[in-house]
Sequence to fold (525 residues):
Amino acid sequence: MTALFTPGATHPLIATASLLAFGLLGGCGGSGDDSSGPQQVTAAQACAALNGKTLAGATVIAAAVAASGATPTYCKVFGNIAPSLNFEMRLPQTWNGKLHYGGGGGYNGVIPGLNLPALNMGYATISSDSGHGGGNVFDASFALNNPTAAQLFGSLSTPTVMSSATELLKTAYGVTPSRSYFEGCSNGGREALMNVQRYPNLFDGVIARAPAYNWVGLLGHFNRTAKAVAATGTSFTLAKTQLLAKAVRDACDGLDGIVDGVVSNQAACTPAVFNPATLRCAGGTDTGNTCLSDAQLAVVTSWTTDASFSGNSTFRNAAWSLSGNEDSPSAWPLWVTGNGTLTNALQFLFQDTTVKNYLARDPAANSLTYSPFDQNQNALYALAALNDATNTDIRPFQNSGGKLLLWHGANDSALSSNATIEYYNNVRTSVGGQANADAFTRLYIAPGVDHCAGGPGADNADLLSALDAWVEKGAAPANLTAQKLDAAGATQFSRPLCVHPKYPRYTGPANDANAAKLAANYTCS
Ligand SMILES: [Ca+2]
Fold:
């Protein structure tokens, strides 16, 4: 899941759902006519029932795909809702009766790769391009002069696609899905929370990973930090990032009981334990790779300081915590500094296209001189109305029986895990306290994990099965187990995935590399 700039390529903001062992399905879709369960139809029969049809406004093409590896034979469906909302479904030969809807990434514009783990578990899976093409997730130009495309991207595409999906499943299998789940990461996590907040009956369960829910606040924070990086010229190199990260690790790695390269007890790594100012170059000007200049320290300050903007109390973003893994290739180098070339950094790219197309509304605008970020209040309100999923009173979702899993990597350099913790804490308040929140929500923070996946931590966990057990059997999820997989899918090591605010603390034998690889030797503390 490294950064890719080509259309349709795999990117942390694009196709996360397809790469991780969890998924989401949506839809309290109704079970009015499924008392006998789904008809046992082959993929070829399902395709024959759908191909060439127009169903619930969607024009459909369908063709069977042979089984391969762990993936069963399935009917691959392409649908178009005119003029520009495109989706893809995969209908497995032996359907478990449930639907998994995978969210998008960035500014979408591509249909993400569908969630293979969910398909392999027997789910029908679906994803869409959210209403515009173009294939470039860093491009928001669709929103400049096309309010319909902007609305579809913001919140409207999912219920629109779900209407067609339900009809397609009924046509292919004779029943609508018994359960529907939605899962997404990054912008897909925003879509997940949008569904919870605005369409509380649409899904039985939702997994929101690294949700970009506070679009105004986080893009304003991106803009502020990009300006700070620009002020360093080309000097924020990988060596500077490594200097910072190592200093954090030196101070804080062992606070979780083991020096393993990951600061799992991030809450204990306070400014009193590590202060970035100790890295300051004498005199404040850059004197080499053993110190940070005042301009470079200003980037750190932007990173570790909350951002807020005028117009609404929700126009804010909680600061990042220093993680000690800022030097992971898909952390600061990818998202923040571009290793000295700011215009390669993804935070720069996202705030730049947002300023141009939503705020200045001028494709020639310079986002680095667009100041202050909140100068156009009308534009901020419009952007929030379209894209912000900041409502914390999600009792309607609870009242419809919905369950919500939140997950965030603690080394996410795209979106702050503290922002997700803040949202979760505000939900607790809005729904009447922790006990009620615990009845239908869980938050997991994954130490050492980058944006959606990657990084030195254990980034793989089967959240979909945990959600399904909660929805179907009332089995509330507790601490889970996460793995780090190698390229072949074998487990390199495992860790507990602790219910927030707990973290995995090592309790095994000292100086035992094999013991340190096993989740059983850690306790959620
Ligand atoms: Ca550690």
